[in-house]
């Protein structure tokens, strides 16, 4: 591709040679002749300008360069869009591997790829250009929308529905039993989990993440939501659209998450809560209460951001406060030792303080 072609695909402009050929994309410290590199601030721009790269992808606010520049309004967005031009995703060949086991009642689009050692159950529907890369188990009555991908060993339990362009990374398990038990006659009796999971369009679920099916009804992952590795979504949770759920998050059963919510790493959210839209929850927070729309919460137990920061500041002051208390206690002890003992009057007679004694003698 040329710099002009790349700029046109990004809605940018070329400053320099629009016919310059680009052979790859690389960070400044490894870029070689013919590569395009990226700089979103002045520090990276200096490194890119001094690199071997042929051209630099930059924002509109950075200075000119001796190299050809592709200027864009939002460099970070352009970075995400330009990578597929140089590193296009592989398209697996259509067909079913001889080692795969496919039920006779399954419907598989001819353009789909079913890799080695996959198991596809009864009445499964697999849409166009779906890829099962290997070792995948797709339970009975599952539906997989077009252009979705299941990486090795991702598993769908029965009745799971995946929308279009869904990605499940290695080891993800969708539709496993929800954690439901009731104490009965000295034992924990299992509550059958007879619901399902619905994963809407453009969702990505990371490696070894689990999404449990509903006890009754469905667990729902909203359109465009991105879930990191090693997260746990419990039964009957409903997430809104375009949420970000980071690694090691745990969301307990029947909690409802709004749209555009960001949940940082290692957050735990109790069950049956309502988290509003456009909420941000800081890392390692423990959420025990409903959160209104648009708020930022931190800490464990989680509280609104300003309150949490006041708590953090107070905690940082604890060593100084402890030293001050020690000093005050020592001072009080010194004053108590220096004070004269109190007089003990005869019963029935008024006490005379040292200050009042001379006046009583004169009388």
- The H-level CATH homologous superfamily of one domain, spelled out, is Hexapeptide repeat proteins
Q: Give the low-confidence spans.
A: 355-363
- Average per-residue pLDDT, rounded, comes to 94
Question: Into which percentage range does the β-strand content fall?
Answer: 25-35%
CATH architecture of one domain: 3 Solenoid
Shape: flat
Let me know the largest β-sheet: 12 strands, mixed
How would you name the oligomeric state of the polypeptide chains in this document? single chain
Number of beta-strand segments:
37
What is the CA-CA span between the terminal residues?
Answer: 115 Å
Helix content: 10-25%
CATH class of one domain: Mainly Beta
Task: Output the CATH topology of one domain.
Answer: UDP N-Acetylglucosamine Acyltransferase, domain 1
Provide the gyration radius in Å.
Answer: 33 Å
The strand line-up of the biggest sheet is 6-9-12-15-18-23-26-28-31-34-36-37
Structural class: alpha/beta
């Amino acid at each position: 591709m040329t710099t002009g072609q790349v700029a046109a695909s990004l809605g940018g402009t070329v400053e320099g040679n629009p016919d310059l050929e680009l052979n790859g994309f690389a960070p400044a410290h490894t870029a070689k002749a013919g590569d395009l590199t990226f700089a979103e601030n002045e520090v990276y721009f200096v490194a890119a300008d001094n690199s071997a790269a042929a051209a630099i992808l930059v924002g509109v606010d950075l200075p000119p360069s001796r190299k050809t520049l592709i200027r864009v309004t939002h460099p970070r967005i352009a970075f995400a869009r330009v990578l597929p031009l140089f590193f296009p995703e592989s398209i697996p060949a259509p067909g079913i591997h001889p080692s795969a086991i496919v039920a006779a009642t399954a419907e598989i689009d001819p353009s789909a790829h079913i890799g080695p050692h996959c198991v596809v159950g009864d009445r499964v529907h697999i849409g166009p250009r779906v890829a099962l890369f290997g070792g995948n188990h797709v339970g009975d009555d599952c539906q997989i929308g077009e252009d979705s991908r299941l990486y090795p060993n991702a598993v769908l339990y029965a009745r799971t529905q995946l929308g279009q362009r869904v990605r499940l990374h290695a080891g993800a398990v969708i539709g496993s039993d929800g954690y439901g038990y009731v104490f009965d006659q000295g034992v924990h009796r299992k509550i059958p989990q007879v619901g399902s999971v619905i994963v809407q369009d453009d969702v990505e679920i990371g490696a070894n993440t689990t999404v449990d099916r509903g006890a009754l009804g469905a667990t729902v992952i909203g359109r465009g939501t991105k879930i990191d590795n090693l997260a746990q979504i419990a039964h009957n949770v409903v997430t809104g659209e375009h949420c970000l759920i980071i690694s090691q998050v745990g969301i307990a059963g029947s909690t409802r998450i709004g749209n555009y919510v960001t949940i940082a790493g290692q957050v735990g959210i109790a069950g049956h809560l309502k988290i509003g839209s456009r909420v941000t929850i800081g890392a390692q927070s423990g959420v025990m209460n409903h959160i209104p729309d648009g708020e930022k919460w931190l800490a464990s137990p989680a509280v609104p951001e300003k309150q949490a920061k006041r708590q953090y500041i107070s905690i940082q002051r604890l060593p100084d406060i402890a030293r001050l208390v020690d000093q005050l206690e020592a001072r009080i002890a010194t004053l108590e030792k220096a004070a004269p003992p109190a007089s003990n009057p005869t019963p029935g007679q008024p006490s005379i303080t040292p200050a009042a004694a001379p006046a009583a003698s004169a009388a």
